[in-house]
Design goal:
The chain is of the alpha/beta class. The chain is 41% helix and 17% strand. It has helices at residues 15-26, 63-73, 77-101, 127-144, 165-174, 187-198, 218-221; strands at 6-11, 30-35, 52-56, 106-113, 149-156, 209-212. It has a six-stranded parallel β-sheet with strand order 2-1-3-4-5-6, sandwiched between helices. β1, α1 (15-26) and β2 form a beta-alpha-beta unit. It starts with 5 loop residues before the first strand and ends with a helix.
Length: 223
C-alpha cells in the first residue's frame, strides 16, 4: 500500500462520502475533501503529483422527484435545472483537475449509483447525470491516457448502509431478477476494492466502467 497517495474526494455531503473520507484517513492517506456545491471552483488550490487520486462520489440529486414535479405542472423546468446545474459543476471540476494533472498524470475515478433500484425503492438516483459522467470518462480516456491520466468509472448498487433491515427484506423478495438471494454490499467492501485499484501505479485500464454489487444492470455497463 502506497502511503504517499493523496486522495481528493469530490462530492456533496452524503453517507457514502463521509464513510469514504474516514476510511482513507484511517489508512494513513492524505485526504482532501471538496464539496461539490462550491461555486467558486477557480479559487480551489490543487497541488497534484503522480500519487494523486481523484474520486467523485455519486450524485444524489433525485431526478425522478424533479421529473414528477414537472409532470404535475406540465413543465420540464425542474429536471432541466437539476441536470444543467450538476453537469456544469462536474465538467468545470473535470477541466480544473485535468489542467493540474497534465504534467505528472494520476487517476480519476467517478462513482455513481445503479439507478435500477429506483423501481423498487425510493432513492435519490440520477440516471441522466450518471450517463453523462460515464460518457465523459470514455471521452477523457481517449484523449488523456497517453499523458498518464487514467480515468475510469464505477457503477454501484446502492449499499447496505442506505437501507433498514425491513427495506432489505423487501428488496430481497422483489429483486430476484438480480440474484436468487439479493444481498446489498457494504460500503467498506466497495472501498476495499477501490483502494486496491488506486494503489496500482501502472493501472492497466482507462475508460472502463466497473460494476459493483450483485446483479448490476448489465445494460448500463455496456456503453
Amino acid at each position: 500500500m502506497n502511503k504517499k497517495l493523496e486522495i481528493f474526494i469530490i462530492g456533496s455531503e452524503t453517507i457514502f462520502r463521509k464513510i469514504m473520507v474516514n476510511y482513507f484517513m484511517g489508512l494513513g492517506y492524505k485526504v482532501v475533501v471538496i464539496n461539490y456545491e462550491i461555486e467558486e471552483i477557480e479559487s480551489i488550490n490543487l497541488n497534484f503529483s503522480k500519487n494523486t487520486r481523484v474520486i467523485f462520489t455519486p450524485v444524489e440529486s433525485d431526478e425522478v422527484f424533479a421529473l414528477t414535479k414537472d409532470i404535475v405542472n406540465a413543465d420540464t423546468t425542474n429536471l432541466i435545472n437539476v441536470i444543467e446545474d450538476h453537469s456544469k459543476k462536474f465538467l468545470n471540476f473535470i477541466q480544473l483537475i485535468l489542467k493540474n494533472m497534465l504534467f505528472d498524470g494520476g487517476q480519476i475515478w467517478i462513482t455513481d449509483w445503479d439507478d435500477s433500484i429506483e423501481y423498487h425503492f425510493s432513492m435519490p438516483v440520477s440516471p441522466i447525470l450518471s450517463e453523462l459522467r460515464a460518457a465523459t470518462v470514455r471521452t477523457l480516456a481517449k484523449e488523456y491516457s497517453r499523458m498518464g491520466i487514467k480515468c475510469n468509472s464505477i457503477l454501484m448498487q446502492v449499499p447496505k448502509e442506505y437501507f433498514s433491515e425491513k427495506d432489505i427484506r423487501k428488496l430481497s423478495k422483489e429483486m430476484k431478477s438480480y440474484a436468487m438471494r439479493y444481498k446489498p454490499t457494504k460500503i467498506e467492501d466497495i472501498l476495499n476494492t477501490i483502494n486496491d485499484l488506486i494503489n496500482q501505479e501502472n493501472l492497466p485500464m482507462s475508460g472502463a466502467m466497473l460494476g459493483f454489487g450483485q446483479g448490476v444492470n448489465q445494460g448500463a455497463l455496456i456503453q
